[in-house]
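Input.
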Amino acid sequence: MGRKIILTGLILMLSVTLTGCISFGKKETAAGSGVGAVATGDRGDTWVAKYKLMTPGAIEANIGGVNVTTIEMDPTDTNAIYMGTRGNGLYYSYNGGDGWDHADVLSKVAAGQINSISIDAKDKCSVYAAVTNRVVKTSDCNRTWQQVFNTAKADEAVVDVVVDWFNTSIVYAAAKDGSVYQSANAGASWAKLADVEQEIKELEISSKDSRVLFMTTVAAGLYKSTDGGKSWLSMNERMESLGGKYRNGYAVAVSKNNPGKVFYLSRLGLLQSFDNGETWSKIALLTGENEATFNALDVSVKDDNLIFLVSGSTLYRTVNGGQTWETRKLPSTAILTDLDVHLANDKLLFVGFSAPQK
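Output.
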């Protein structure tokens, strides 16, 4: 699951106790021209942010001005959070966001916008990042980074990189032009699997069967693969009975506590599938079809009835699978680029903002 603006207002502070729990402190005013990572400890009722940059001695610095592109949480250690930016490289926190370090070595290996980050679910020190048209990897918890893949053309950006949760030697990279690549040996070598000839937004691996993948595209809706990315089938026909072909895909999410359940957010609304994408049904929203443009979706790992959507500067949330919805205002009118529900505490959300790209 890779947007930006100017903020001088409300920022969320996170503090981590000795037990590893996250608590919220006083509000602070951000310095700099951007928002960075912002969080809420009560599912969007109040917002604060911690943007402290870890520096030696008494030197104080912050990353309040960075344009965030993506946020990723370690599936085995929820205190470990990675944040990609548009022009400032990658930052990481090992204390739940209380303080951030900069991955200096990565920036020397591959400079440019970080579009995606993925962590090996069986080896927390192995992390992949999609940087412009390249994939880079660290195997030693950010001490060193190496480039492991690049597309043939510099303007063929890698928009997403994902690690198979079952066999973590398998890594997928999706290029903006519709190409899907795979490494079967943890990034040592790569092969092109397919080309859907559509602009890809993201990939998601099924929580029921890691050979099943879902792909959202900008103009052709949702695709599904059942053979590990070798072939792809459009889901449009399976959604046609719901009132139209669900193109203009915004996001896809899979349930972790209910394997086989999938959520798909598109121009025409929010859909759900209980059979790994074979059949679909609508989840009613507060807005009608085409009334709102949504740009983010996430679902609680602990309870897939808890769903969050974002449209503009409004957060939509439901605690009962879409039977009822509530809205809350985000702390910025900037472009929201990512939304992550905390893996251990689903009252806590991390969001990233970015200024419009000139």
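Confidence is low (pLDDT under 50) at residues 1-34.
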